Amino acid sequence: MHSPRDLRRRxxxxxxTAQITKAMQMVAASKMRKAQQAALAGRPFVRVLYRxxxxxTTRMGEFAHPLLEVREVHKRAIILIGADKGxxxxxxGNLFRLAAEFDTQSTVFITAGRRAAQFVARTGxxxxxxxxxxxxPRIAEARAIAACARDLFLKxxxxxxxxxxxxxxxxxxxxxxxxxxxxxxxxxxxxxxGVRSEEELAADITESIFEPSxxxxxxxxLSHYLDIFxxxxxxxxxxxxxxxxxxxxxxxxxxxxxxxxxxTLEYNKLRQGNITKELLEIAGGQSD
Amino acid sequence: MxxxxxxxxxxxxxxxxxxxxxxxxxxxxxxxxGVLPQHVRLITQLVPGELIVHQSGRDEFMAVGExxxxxxxxxxxxxxxxxxxxxxxxxxxxxxxxxxxxxxxREKISSEEVASVNASLARSLAxxxxxxxxx
Lengths: 288, 135
Prior knowledge:
Strand order of the largest sheet of chain A: 3-2-1-4-5
CATH architecture of chain A: 3-Layer(aba) Sandwich
Strand order of the largest sheet of chain B: 2-1-9-8-5
Shape of chain B: globular
Largest interface: A-B, 28 and 23 residues
Largest sheet of chain B: 5 strands, mixed
Oligomer: heterodimer
Order of helices and strands of chain B: EEEEEEEEEEHH
Mean pLDDT of chain B: 85
Strand content of chain B: 35-45%
CATH topology of chain A: Pyruvate Kinase, Chain: A, domain 1
CATH superfamily of the largest domain in chain B: F0F1 ATP synthase delta/epsilon subunit, N-terminal
Order of helices and strands of chain A: HHEHEHEHEEHEH
Distance between the termini of chain A: 32 Å
């Protein structure tokens, strides 16, 4: 049995926690909107690029490029894209569970986001480079990450690069998943995350003139493809992080409010009981 | 027959421009190129330089970076890493950026870095050229 004073103290402490989680929820909500908008704003760019790539690949013959080279995998690098902070539900945990499946010896890590770097350091895995990205990711940040991975691959220090990141589905659903990054797979199936394959495109393609040639256009495209790929992944990761944080803070606020309600009820009952007891004592005293 | 052509300019961050225009002049890899409505389908590479939008007797000037261009008979789609209207160019800031890049080039840096500095230098130069020509 708690004393009324204990109860009052607990109510006060919980309500100040609720205030904080409420504030964090608001902040995350506004950042979430921005992150989701950014993810949408990049879509037209990707759509046009995808269209050009489709046309170019249907027109070129044999095409060799060092980034397309498939080698036997002895060593792989993983680009792990996590959040900077916690308090976002199972988001980071899901990512790290995926990352933990890879063998410690033959896998090196490139991380983005502080939590990802902490995970790699804590579990004693090999860290090659650590990057950060802002609340609104910029292409330059993506370029740095992509360049690092590309260097490792081209110098044959690793034979495969994969990305582990969170895909943004909607505010309630985010999905941790592993993506193939290098070597760039069958170029015909070149895909950029966040864009649905547009089958209707294939139908309306009449032949285009290429200036100077499909190969040149494709080579140019390939050199920028990696940056854009990472950029899209970063946008997705950010939108996921903010959404997950918003939802988990909302849950925290709600359960705090529930607790406050229960405790207030208990407190009032106790207070009522005490008053009744006192009244009875007074009444008892008078009848004597 | 449509006598305007849709111009779309997209950068990774946003859709910069999307309007119906009379004609577009853009810096292609094989030289300055004018695109009128009903153009034959064409895909080419864009180089840093000046893009001119001709719209109902008026000309608009923009500085663009490198990228790709897709032309169909009713649309010009441009993907580029930079597209800035001439009146949005901050000449002082760009000049500073240009000098920084030029200074960086004189230092000892990796070839990868040279490429990226060169690219940013080309972007700055394109902006300056466009700005100074239309003062």
